[in-house]
Design a protein that fits this description.
By secondary structure, the chain is an alpha+beta fold. The strands form 3 sheets. Strands 1, 2, 3, 4, 5, 6 and 7 form a 7-stranded mixed β-sheet that branches. A 4-stranded antiparallel β-sheet has the order 11-12-8-13. Strands 9-10 form a two-stranded antiparallel ribbon. It is globular, with a radius of gyration of 28 Å.
């Protein structure tokens, strides 16, 4: 599965669209990156840009954009309402899929180091990328803004994390960080009262409401020894909220910024607002997502609401998303289109690649039967393995809903989730096997005239062939995970579906043996014989184990069927 990160650089130019366009052109020029949003502000004289992609490509696009901004934006002439200290004021990286915050923080430091060394711009690392505790807070890093940089750089305590200590008059300084994904999320109420909406917002937001003497509404605000208001914290961490009336819809809303969805996910925020609203005699009627959201957040929401119903969580992503939409009423005010609101789906829509797994069953079979060399046996093996995992998940789901087995729903739900995850990985490998084949063909098509070209071509062929060997090997490794699932379902699952478990075992065995043939044929041309022999030996061992496991499972299946007579 691809790692994805988001980058949201803020550039100190919000009025000259020509300059903004030149900067975003640099981002769009990098393959593997998708520009999602460009939001210029004239009053702030600042533009917020959002793009997503694979880590190395995002870092390259970010660097090019920072470089272009340093060439086009002169901070000596900049005026705007928003705090700023550089042509590229801030450049945060956000983990989106299949990557940890720790990895993202390391990438942010890598980007910061390159900006500092190659562009001569002082860089401070903030939030999760901070190298010093006091620099986690962006406001501390930006204190004094551009005008205060000469004095700040002269202070040893504020030596930049990367780049020169000298003041860069034109570009200023930049803050590069790693932070969690921010979600703008509004909850709809059956009231037009802004005051009541605000009361609920104060109940839930982390900041809470001011502590008052006597009457909690009209009493004098209590202040600390420094003269600052003392607050009663709200119930949700990492949440900012306010109540307002939306004339367009004729309702009041709780408008929230969820600044760290790993601390307070959307479904938790939604349910907490429902609870606090109900306590005040107000009902929640739905919600609204402003901007984009990572796929994982929607899947987690779907699982949360299914668990509340004591239903299996091991269903496909589309069903989890549907449950999340309906449970939170995300489609109350206007249609919620996953392909326009979920980051990974937006990216998929921008990609021109046609996927095999998007074909119908008939279309896949017809393409396989055509004169096209791909999809071939490797892709088919991965697909057959995915069918085996799907059958295991199906038996688990049927078992979790079996009448009289209500107390076992979590047990079978865990198995169904496992089956869905294996299925997802194998479906990815269906197309990756064809990509691997195409890489080999591309390598053979490289120029082959000069000695240098011949060497480069040979190296490319070997690298592509190694990858083409690794993909079916990965199919084998992943399919091995199907057997524990199928065995558990054959022994413990709904006996009326035991034949389905048996077919799943047959599919898994066929997938493994088929993938092994592809390992063998691709390994045959490898010059790195140590690598080839190692994969072949491991592959043969897995195949032998698969044959053994399949025989054991079929024996159990036949035994269960015989006992049903």
């Amino acid at each position: 599965m691809k790692k994805l990160i988001e980058c949201v650089p803020n550039f100190s130019e919000g009025r000259d669209m020509g300059i903004i366009r030149q900067i975003t052109d640099q981002i769009e020029a990098v393959e593997g990156v998708s520009l999602l949003d460009v939001d210029p502000g004239a009053a702030t004289n600042r533009t917020v840009v959002t793009f997503v992609g694979t880590p190395d490509e995002v870092l390259e696009a970010a660097f090019r954009a920072v470089k272009k901004a340093s060439e086009l934006i002169d901070m000596r002439k900049h005026k705007g309402e928003h705090p700023r200290m550089g042509a590229t004021d801030v450049c945060p990286l956000i983990p989106v899929a299949n990557i940890s915050m720790e990895e993202t923080a390391e990438l942010a430091r890598k980007l910061a180091a390159r900006i500092g060394s190659e562009l001569g711009i002082p860089v401070y690392c903030y939030e999760n990328a901070a190298l010093k505790p006091e620099r986690r807070n962006l406001a501390n890093c930006r204190a004094g803004e551009y005008e205060g940089l000469p004095a700040k750089l002269a202070d040893p305590n504020w030596k930049p994390d990367f780049g020169p200590v000298q003041f860069n008059e034109r570009a200023g300084a930049t803050a590069v960080g790693a932070r969690d994904f921010l979600v703008a999320f509004n909850v709809n109420l059956n009231t037009t009262s802004t005051r009541r909406a605000n009361a609920i917002a104060y109940d839930v937001r982390e900041k809470g409401r001011p502590l008052r003497e006597g009457d909690p509404v009209t009493g004098k605000i209590v202040k600390d020894e420094h003269g600052n208001p003392v607050n009663i914290p709200g119930s949700l961490k990492a949440v900012k909220a306010i109540g307002w009336f939306i004339e367009e819809y004729g309702i009041a809303q709780i408008s929230m910024n969820l600044t760290n969805i790993s601390i307070t996910p959307v479904h938790v925020a939604f349910d907490e607002v429902c609870c606090k609203a109900d306590a005040r005699g107000v009902r929640v009627t739905g919600s609204e997502l402003v901007g984009l959201i990572p796929l994982r957040a929607m899947l987690d929401a779907g699982k949360y609401f299914l668990a509340r119903q004591q239903r299996s969580l091991g269903v496909d992503d589309d069903e989890l998303i549907r449950i999340a939409i309906k449970s939170m009423g995300l489609d109350e005010l206007k249609p919620f289109k996953p392909e326009e609101k979920i980051i990974e789906y937006v990216l998929a829509g921008k990609q021109k690649e046609k996927l095999l797994i998007d074909l119908t069953a008939k279309g896949f079979a017809n393409l396989t039967a055509s004169e096209a060399p791909a999809p071939g046996g490797g892709s088919v093996a991965a697909y057959v393995g995915a069918l085996g995992a799907s059958l295991g998940a199906m038996v688990a789901n049927l078992s979790s809903h079996k009448r009289g087995w209500d107390d076992r729903w979590e047990e079978f739900s865990r198995w169904a989730e496992k089956g869905q995850e294996i299925k997802k990985q194998l479906l990815y490998l269906v197309d990756e096997d064809t990509r691997a084949f195409n890489k080999v063909m591309d390598a053979f098509g490289l120029p082959n005239k000069t000695e240098q070209e011949k060497l480069q071509r040979q190296q490319a062929i070997q690298e592509a062939s190694e990858y083409a060997t690794l993909i079916p090997f990965k199919v084998m490794q992943t399919t091995m995970e199907v057997f524990p699932l199928i065995e558990a379902m054959a022994r413990q699952g709904n006996p009326n579906s035991v034949s389905d478990a048996g077919v799943g075992a047959l599919c898994a065995r066929a997938a493994l043996l088929g993938a092994l043939l592809n390992v063998k044929i691709n390994a045959a041309s490898l010059k790195n014989r140590e690598f080839a022999e190692a994969k072949l030996a491991e592959g043969e061992a897995m195949a032998a184990e698969a044959v053994k496991l399949e025989a054991e499972i079929i024996s159990v299946v036949n035994q269960v069927i015989s006992e049903m007579k």
